[in-house]
């Protein structure tokens, strides 16, 4: 698939999602960027601002297999990965796939389950496969986990393990809508659920081709060095105990390529790196005690890292 063809697919998905998400074009574009990059998406915000609606709108715009998992304290790892059950008729064990066997998995309120259950997704998210009873099962492509979670300070939530957070390509926040947008929400959703009217505008095979098109987006070596210097700046930040990993660099590069396609380009520019640095890196870094006590947001630490690195081809002002 050519870059412009992939851009047309993006436009169709965007138009579909915006019929149910008023005033959230940035969140929609970030979700589509994650889809094209094959990067799992974490949506973190307070209840009621449209986290699950965003995840469902993305899933319903694509004709593919979709499973929704409601994470609760009593959810078991086998509910996610599957389990082998003894069949008395055949005298053998049969594998019953869990909810993770789908093209798009909506993990709703993922941090309401125990860390043990959350960890059941680790292998699937990183390697696109599941191991049960010494047998490995490959997951179908495309495979995307779209997880929602409430802030960890809220009652009944567990913080995601650092290894789990690092496997999410991006973490985005919905935020409260503007007043006019909230009035539009009342008009659209006051008497019906717009998700029920949403029809697929593309299919899994087309998305697979669009994901492949991301690999053809050109990245100048100077842009790659710019990206790595930003990631490295988080490792040397006086506010960080743990900076972003090389996995973060790889994810940021692929997301930047996907964003280029979303904006109709076949090449990456510094603006792509700058726009994606915070949603890609902020959830991966671990602040030190002083920054936590000062309540300094991780997004500000990443913003400082971006501001401290010179843009390729642009002279820094004194």
Description of the molecule:
- The chain has helices at 3-18, 25-37, 51-60, 77-81, 115-118, 122-127, 162-166, 179-189, 204-214, 221-235, 246-262, 270-281, 289-293, 298-307, and strands at residues 40-44, 62-63, 66-70, 82-87, 92-97, 104-108, 129-132, 135-138, 144-149, 168-172, 202-203, 240-242, 286-287.
- A hairpin with a 4-residue loop joins β4 and β5.
- It is 44% helix and 17% strand.
- It is globular, with a radius of gyration of 20 Å.
- The protein has a domain at 217-313: Magnesium chelatase subunit I, C-Terminal domain (Helicase, Ruva Protein, domain 3, Orthogonal Bundle).
- The N and C termini lie far apart (45 Å).
- With 318 residues, it is α/β, with parallel strands linked by helices.
- The strands form five sheets. A five-stranded parallel β-sheet has the order 3-6-9-1-10.
Question: In summary, what is this structure?
Answer:
With 318 residues, the protein is α/β, with parallel strands linked by helices. Helices cover 44% and strands 17% of the residues.
């Amino acid at each position: 698939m050519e870059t412009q063809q992939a851009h047309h697919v993006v436009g169709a998905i965007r138009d579909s999602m915006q019929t149910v998400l008023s005033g959230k074009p940035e969140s929609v574009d970030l979700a589509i960027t994650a889809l094209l990059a094959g990067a799992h998406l974490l949506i973190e915000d307070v209840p009621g601002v449209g986290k699950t609606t965003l995840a469902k709108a993305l899933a319903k715009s694509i004709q593919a297999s979709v499973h929704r998992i409601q994470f609760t304290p009593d959810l078991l790892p086998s509910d996610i990965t599957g389990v082998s059950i003894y069949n008395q008729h055949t005298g053998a064990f049969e594998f019953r796939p869990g909810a993770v066997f789908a093209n798009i998995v909506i993990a709703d309120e993922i941090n309401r389950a125990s860390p043990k259950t959350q960890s059941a997704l680790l292998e699937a998210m990183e390697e696109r496969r599941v191991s049960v009873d010494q047998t490995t099962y490959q997951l179908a492509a495309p495979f995307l986990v779209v997880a929602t979670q409430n802030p960890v300070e809220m009652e009944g939530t567990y913080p995601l393990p650092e290894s789990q957070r690092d496997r999410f390509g991006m973490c985005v926040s919905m935020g409260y809508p503007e007043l006019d947008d909230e009035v539009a929400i009342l008009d659209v959703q006051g008497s019906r659920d717009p998700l029920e009217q949403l029809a697929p505008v593309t299919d899994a095979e087309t998305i697979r081709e669009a994901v492949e098109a991301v690999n053809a987006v050109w990245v100048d070596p100077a842009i790659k060095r710019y990206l790595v210097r930003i990631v490295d700046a988080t490792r040397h930040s006086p506010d960080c105990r743990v900076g972003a990993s090389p996995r973060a660099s790889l994810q940021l590069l692929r997301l930047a390529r996907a964003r280029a396609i979303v904006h109709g380009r076949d090449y990456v520019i510094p603006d792509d790196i700058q726009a994606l640095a915070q949603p890609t890196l902020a959830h991966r870094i671990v602040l030190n005690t002083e920054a936590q006590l000062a309540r300094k947001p991780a997004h500000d630490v990443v913003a400082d890292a971006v501001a401290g690195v010179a843009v390729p081809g642009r002279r820094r002002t004194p």
